[in-house]
Specification:
single chain; alpha+beta; twelve-stranded mixed beta sheet
Length: 376
């Protein structure tokens, strides 16, 4: 029988960290930087409501689940910024998603990128990667052969950007707080433009990015920026996290007026070239969806998205609400549910107080009504 103990993140002593690293070494599917203990230690200092569930069987530690609480809701630690999460455990030994929800006994457990057995819960989503076993040149030759027109367009965009604004310059592995603040400002403007919830308005999420960028962990764990300039003008900047041979693109932004020249895509390509020379072999682009990813990515992973509600009135009301929306025709409730659920998950994770969550929901509702949003 599995038992659970909830501890503070700063209670992870050397014995816990050592066992954690042994589990990661034995579990290739837990390769993302999000699973490193350094991420939990940094996020645990910054995210409100942070804790770690320690799972034991017959007194022996069999797994860890870093998480945060917002009222009765349980979320992965660092949500909504956490793209990959799950129980850190030796293969086949940790509890499934369904069992984790039962053991934690919150009003609901909300996950968007669960890695590992789901126990029959949730829906499968795909994330996409660039695998470079032979380095950047081999990858680019293969993708250009498959998608010649697309990459010729990007080569023309590079020449156009340089002709209009001046020589291009790319810098990677930057750890400049001021440049990160510029990136966050660009992202916040993007959220305002598109009507999405501003994940940086709450403050602690920006603090988390700053803290991770100043962290140097075992196995190359850390975070950094890359930037593209044309002449003296900043065109694009991107924040990434990395560990081992994994490089996770996280927050990209570009100057909106330069969209015709694809500066963000050019920066990602140049970043991959430079990072591959430093030993990175997999570049993770997160969830599929944006059109450019199909041209870049040659690998994928399956994760689980789920909201597990404790049995009772809350679950019944959720099903009833979706059923009523479906009466509007064409399965409207089912189609809207995933999009609205993801918006709510971001709001609930970011905003610590009920008042701030209410304001976030009110804004999302206005956007949904004015734009008649479609599923994300």
């Amino acid at each position: 029988m599995v038992q659970v103990e909830i501890i503070a993140t700063d209670a992870l002593d050397a014995a816990h960290i050592g066992r954690w690293r042994e589990m990661l070494a034995a579990s290739p599917e837990l390769c993302s930087p999000y699973f490193r203990p350094e991420f939990t230690q940094v996020a645990g200092r910054i995210s409100p409501g942070a804790a770690v569930a320690v799972f034991r069987r017959s007194g022996e530690v069999i797994g860890y689940f870093p998480h945060q609480r917002r009222g009765g809701s349980i979320q992965p630690l660092g949500a909504p910024l956490n793209d990959y999460h799950g129980v850190i455990a030796f293969p086949g030994q940790g509890p499934s998603l369904a069992e984790t929800a039962r053991l934690l006994n919150g009003a609901r457990l909300n996950v968007g990128g669960w890695v590992g057995p789901a126990g029959g819960e949730g829906e499968t989503r795909q994330t996409c990667q660039v695998a470079m076993p032979e380095g950047y040149d081999g990858w680019y030759a293969e993708r250009r052969a498959a998608w010649g027109k697309y990459f010729k367009d990007k080569e023309r965009a590079r020449r156009s950007l340089e002709a209009e604004f001046g020589p291009l310059r790319v810098q990677t592995d930057i750890r400049d707080p001021d440049l990160l603040d510029r990136l966050i400002a660009l992202k916040r403007e993007q959220y305002r433009r598109t009507g999405r919830h501003d994940v940086f308005a709450c403050g602690w999420t920006a603090d988390l990015l700053h803290a991770l960028m100043q962290t140097r962990g075992e196995g190359g764990f850390g975070a950094s920026l890359a930037a593209l300039w044309a002449g003296d003008s900043l065109c694009a900047v991107e924040y990434s996290m990395h560990a081992g041979d994994q490089f996770h693109f996280w927050f990209p932004a570009y100057v909106p007026g330069l969209a015709r020249c694809s500066p963000g895509i050019l920066l990602s390509m140049d970043t991959m070239r430079a990072a591959s020379e430093r030993g990175y072999a997999t570049f993770d682009f997160g969830f599929a969806g944006e059109g450019y990813k199909k041209y870049f990515c040659n690998a994928e992973r399956n994760v689980t998205e789920a909201v597990i509600v404790r049995p009772g009135l809350g679950a019944d009301l959720s099903r009833s609400a979706v059923g009523l929306l479906n009466l509007a025709g064409d399965g409207r409730g089912e189609r809207l549910r995933a999009s609205l659920r993801r918006r709510w998950a971001a709001i609930e994770a970011c905003e610590v107080t009920a008042a701030d969550r209410f304001r976030g929901v009110a804004y999302a509702a206005r956007v949904a009504l004015s734009r008649r949003i479609q599923p994300a």
